[in-house]
Amino acid sequence: MTTERPTLTLVIPAHNEAEGLGHLVDALDHTLRHVTDYELLVVDDGSTDNTAGVLRSLREAWPHLRYVILSRNFGHQAAVRAGLSRARGRAVIVMDADMQHPPSVLIEMISAWRSGADVVHAVRRYGATIPLFKRLTSGLYYRLLNLISDARLETGAADFYLLDERVVQDLNALTEQHLFLRGVIPSLGYRRRTVPFTAGDRSTGQSSYSLKKMLRLARDGVLSTSVKPLRIGVLLSSLVGGAAALYAAYALLVALRGEALPGWTSIILVVSVIGAMQLLTLGIIGEYLGRVLAEARGRPSFLIADDSLDADRHVAALSDEPSGREDGPFRVEDGS
Question: What residue ranges are annotated as transmembrane (predicted)?
């Protein structure tokens, strides 16, 4: 394989995508072969199907295909970071392996980069075919994220973007364990463009990105981009303090009138509300402390079990070594 740097690297995290990889490689090659020189870098995020085997087979037919196989399932964001750490292109596009990120959008993204943009973010447009619940929850999440964090994201911003090599270098220099890349990239301050896209249908199978994983990503999006949730405790204590002052004034007024103050129901209600607020605040603090502990441990965000580029270098090194048969000090002579 050539050691020259390609213009473009496509980083594609994959988890249990064995069935659709061949179709993906064909579609990307059909789109890009006459546009730019490129390489595909597929990151197998601990798949339990034959994704790794399919990648090795495809590589025999597609020399521009590279793969990185992680030692286990580290999660989508970690898989993307693993790909960014191994990308060689002057520009890098991150996209999913399930064909829901249409290859046709790549041409517009590359054009925007060549026009001077350092970051080109593809933004999903939700059509009528998308379930109403998904549209509502997605819009609500992005509004909430922009409100309580330092991220500024458009509704529908996905992990589908192009990054100039300078942006990739800056991201690779970050050592945080839990990075929400969609939120971190805008904070770097590079020239940014957006392009719209409509999500396609999955090429094969079902998504392995469960509701639990989506909720975890949503949580990481808030906690990794802002400390504002920690201030919720201050807000809640102010609200409770104000309510307590009003209740004290009410109790004093009732006492001055010589009336009996209502009994246990109101007291239990107040105690329950205060207790719930305390537990919420402690839970938020606990999430941040857990992240501090993870950072202090310094464990890697991902571990690479196999990298096709390393294998190529190993084979090349072996081919350059003398075999010992022609140049060695020993000869096999005819004993006749």
Answer: 232-255, 267-289
The pair of structure tokens assigned to 240 is 């409770």
Q: Are 58 and 25 in contact (CB under 8 A)?
A: yes
Task: Note whether 171 and 184 are within 8 A (CB).
Answer: yes
* Mean of the per-residue pLDDT values of the chain: 79
Residues 93 and 194 in one domain: yes
Amino acid at 56: R
Q: Which uninterrupted H or E stretch holds 65?
A: strand 65-70
Indicate if 278 and 244 belong to the same structural domain: yes
Are residues 156 and 27 located together in one domain of the fold?
Answer: yes
- The whole-angstrom separation of Cα 218 and Cα 238 is 27
Same domain, 49 and 187: yes
Q: Which of 303, 3, 220, 101 is nearest to 93 (CA)?
A: 101
pLDDT tens digits, 164-198? 999 999 999 988 877 888 888 888 889 999 999 88
Looking at residue 80, which CATH number applies to its domain?
3.90.550.10
Tokens of 31: 């789109």
Of 1-5, 15-19, 214-218, 276-280, give the lowest mean pLDDT range: 1-5
Q: Which of 74-78, 95-99, 235-239 has the lowest mean pLDDT?
A: 235-239
CA angle 312, 315, 317 (to 5 degrees): 110
Q: Residue 296's CB: how many other CB atoms inside 10 A?
A: 9
